[in-house]
Amino acid sequence: MNQAQMMAQVRKMQQEMARVQEELASTVVEGSSGGDAVTVAVNGDFKVTRVTLRPEAVDPDDIETLEDLLVVALNDALGKVQALSSSKMGALTGGMRIPGLT
Length: 102
Prior knowledge:
Elements: H1 3-25, E1 28-33, E2 38-43, E3 48-53, H2 63-93
Antiparallel strand pairs: 1-2, 2-3
Helix pairs in contact: 1-2
């Protein structure tokens, strides 16, 4: 493979990575806890887009439980985004771990 072919492949891979990153940014996943009493939506940019609380999750006398439910729901959603990102980028990079992408 000559240098021009290698550079063409690198450019193609960069374009595909940009496309996948855009796709991930527009993807929203949900995490939940407490039997869906708390749900959190996170996009592929790892930004929280929505938090939903059912009335039974809110007890003014037990804020600690609500805090715990939020932490669990957030970690659930973030874990799903990380797995999705790793899966999509891993398929693109052939399993190579590229810092900042997987």
